[in-house]
Specification:
285 residues, alpha/beta, two-stranded antiparallel ribbon
Length: 285
Amino acid sequence: MNNYIGIGFRKEFSDEFLSSGKLKPGFIEVAPENWMGIGGYWKKIFKQVTEKYLVLAHGLSLSIGSPEDLDWTFLKQVKDFIKEYDIQIYSEHLSYSKCDNAHLYDLLPVPFTEDAIKHISNRIKHVQDFLEMKIAIENVSYYTPVAAEMTELEFINEIVSEADCNLLLDVNNVYVNAFNHKYNAIEFIHGLPLEKVSYIHMAGHEQVEPDLIIDTHGANVIELVYDLFDYTTRFVRPVPVLLERDFNIPDLEVLQDEINKLNRIISINWDLQNESTKKHIPAAV
């Protein structure tokens, strides 16, 4: 059963994806910013893929941690996109990517402080009210804490609780941060509000130094991250799982092998026998 495992749709492999049948995900994920307002050839391609697959949205430029006002023009475009393609889950990063209206083209960490909790939670509430749906906020990788008053785990829990939003649990990011900042990944997983997880990401990374891993989304998932996923899914209800691969795209058969491996893990940890007649993945709560 492939319903729960999806793939990020990329223009680089769109033709082969649509024509070959080598890659069989249960859904696709797209960044709304890359597809809103498109026309011509790519509009036609996107229409074909959305007629065949359920679409989930993972944003890049909401910049929920920015100090300036929310971009309501952008949010109106996102809302229209969500409605046009009947998107059940819209997720974003617990980070910021804009400052003084300048796009930084990176996902930068926010300080783990009480002021940041209040600011970000309030912004999430406004976004959810406007979109008329809960959003899922992703735990991000970071390489140095910024003016921290608390731990990353405490910060995430406070945000999810105060904003009353869902959590996108990126298992690879937990592994990367645990390695880089020398904490226990299993204890971190258990400390999260797992009942609020509505979406999971899995990805590869690159170890660039003996004590430093970089989250790249450009490599195969390693066994230790599969192990952490295996452990995590024993404590999380069935939710959609995305295999992220943003560049260094391998043969589609390689991606399908990874999808198959993820499916084998969840088929053991989640009781999907009773789910087999469902035609869609569960919506976010």
